[in-house]
Automatic annotation (TrEMBL):
CDD domains associated with the record: NUDIX_MTH1_Nudt1
GO biological processes: DNA protection
Name of protein: Oxidized purine nucleoside triphosphate hydrolase
Reactions the enzyme catalyzes: N(6)-methyl-ATP + H2O = N(6)-methyl-AMP + diphosphate + H(+); O(6)-methyl-dGTP + H2O = O(6)-methyl-dGMP + diphosphate + H(+); 8-oxo-dATP + H2O = 8-oxo-dAMP + diphosphate + H(+); 8-oxo-dGTP + H2O = 8-oxo-dGMP + diphosphate + H(+)
Recorded family membership: Belongs to the Nudix hydrolase family.
Naturally occurring in which organism (per UniProt): Collybia nuda
Gene Ontology cellular component list: cytoplasm; nucleus
Molecular function via GO: 8-oxo-7,8-dihydroguanosine triphosphate pyrophosphatase activity; dATP diphosphatase activity; metal ion binding
KW Transferase (keyword) present: no
Function of the molecule: Oxidized purine nucleoside triphosphate hydrolase which is a prominent sanitizer of the oxidized nucleotide pool. Catalyzes the hydrolysis of 2-oxo-dATP (2-hydroxy-dATP) into 2-oxo-dAMP. Also has a significant hydrolase activity toward 2-oxo-ATP, 8-oxo-dGTP and 8-oxo-dATP. Through the hydrolysis of oxidized purine nucleoside triphosphates, prevents their incorporation into DNA and the subsequent transversions A:T to C:G and G:C to T:A. Also catalyzes the hydrolysis of methylated purine nucleoside triphosphate preventing their integration into DNA.
Protein's UniProt keywords contain Magnesium: yes
Segments forming domain Nudix hydrolase: 35-165
Subunit structure: Monomer.
Length: 196
């Protein structure tokens, strides 16, 4: 363990009174970073299902994710999350803060600070947009033939660690560092905690 840190110590860039939840890549060092850029990501969780979007373009294309993007100047995180949900899925929802994630990628000097939101209801008609194709996935055993299990093989590597917390309404905080080869991103080191 480098720098005198133990597995249960929260990583650089992560603050707060947290209880350790899980970690990986414990034998390698955290990557350095100078500054952050700010993003949101929103999920609708309803009746044992989660609404994900298949990203058709831009960063994270060909992966399923929540709906979100950059926080624009003058916006709060919540305003940005609501705007992105409307732009990318055509709906509005009473979003509540669910978690905070810090992502680093080898070769990219700015870290991504992503505030995660969730809602259990929404209004409007879920619509495919230029950026995202929305799709419902079952969070448990599939009980309907038109609903799939979560597509973890087509999501960011570390989503499998915190999505169960999001689904159950448990708040979470974490950091994940990725190695990058061409368009392939592989999780290198990660740590998740829950508020004490
Ligand atoms: C690296 O790990 C990540 N995991 C997850 N689950 N989500 C991530 C990760 N890295 C970034 N994201 C999310 C954060 C945002 O919700 C999107 C990226 O936003 P995007 O680049 O599409 O921002 P926009 O403002 O929508 O961009 P344009 O309008 O310029 O297309 O991915």
């Amino acid at each position: 363990m480098g720098g005198g840190r133990t597995q249960s110590d929260s990583p650089p860039g992560i603050d707060g009174d947290l209880n350790f939840y899980l970690s990986g890549g414990d034998d390698v060092e955290w990557m350095p970073f100078e500054t952050k850029k700010y993003y949101t990501n929103a999920f609708i969780v309803q009746e044992g299902k989660v609404l994900l979007g298949y990203k058709k373009r831009g960063f994270g294309r060909h992966k399923y994710n929540g709906f979100g993007g950059k926080v624009e100047e003058g916006e709060t995180y919540l305003q940005a999350a609501l705007r992105e949900l409307e732009e990318e899925a055509g709906i509005t929802a009473p979003l509540e803060h669910a978690g905070s994630l810090l992502f680093l990628t080898e070769g990219i000097e700015k870290a991504f600070q992503i505030e995660i939101y969730r809602a259990t209801e929404y209004s409007g008609t879920i619509s495919e947009t230029e950026e995202m194709r929305p799709e419902w996935f079952s969070l448990g055993p599939a009980d309907k033939t038109d609903i799939q299990e979560l597509p973890f093989d087509k999501m960011w590597d570390t989503d499998r660690h915190w999505l169960p917390l999001l689904a159950s309404g448990q708040k979470f905080v974490g950091r994940a560092d990725f190695k990058c080869s061409g368009e392939v991103f592989t999780a290198h080191k990660w740590w998740y905690g829950v508020p004490a």
